[in-house]
Amino acid sequence: GAVVSQHPSWVICKSGTSVKIECRSLDFQATTMFWYRQFPKQSLMLMATSNEGSKATYEQGVEKDKFLINHASLTLSTLTVTSAHPEDSSFYICSAPWGQAAFFGQGTRLTVV
Amino acid sequence: AQTVTQSQPEMSVQEAETVTLSCTYDTSESNYYLFWYKQPPSRQMILVIRQEAYKQQNATENRFSVNFQKAAKSFSLKISDSQLGDTAMYFCAFGRGGGADGLTFGKGTHLIIQP
Lengths: 113, 115
Hints:
The complex is a heterodimer. Chain A is an all-beta fold. In chain B, the strands form 3 sheets. In chain B, strands 2, 5, 6, 10, 11 and 12 form a 6-stranded mixed beta sheet that branches. A 4-stranded antiparallel beta sheet of chain B has the order 3-9-8-7, with no helix packed on it. The chains are: A mainly beta, B mainly beta. At the A-B interface, β4, β5, β9 and β10 of A face β5, β6, β10 and β11 of B.
């Protein structure tokens, strides 16, 4: 199967600091990965597409300078939330495509205090 | 842009019953993929079933099957012999390139299986 691992599962950070979330495809290569955000009791909203070797593409309304994405290798994409504020608190989930479907990481619960 | 609509915020059935979750979508694409994902309390998104729009035959995966009506843009999920472990949020999703493009999700249906 296709396994996607996300780390950390949860993180608490202070307002104004930055936090990095990693997304790894463990048993396959992914030239593209996706980052979603999920608010409590709501659906997943696509934030950005992470492209290996090139710049990420962001959905309308997503701040590029706040959510930095780096796709450094064929198995790793990172999302860095810069200068985090309490309103950035959310559940962040990554996915990678394999076999005509998307496979998801476990998600990261970010709490900014 | 694509839209996905799930009109049932919550459903509750008894164990061993059959339940159908509804999903409609709107798109101008001629070829695409539709998915049902399950999100249990752990919040891990789990692929339940996938349907390719160009295939007329409805997809099935063990107790899970879909009723895909392309002209009506409808994609319902039927769960047979429901089990307690089926309790979860179920999301219907649209993808233009399978998983190769970002997915558009519906708002979800919270399914509760009662013992």
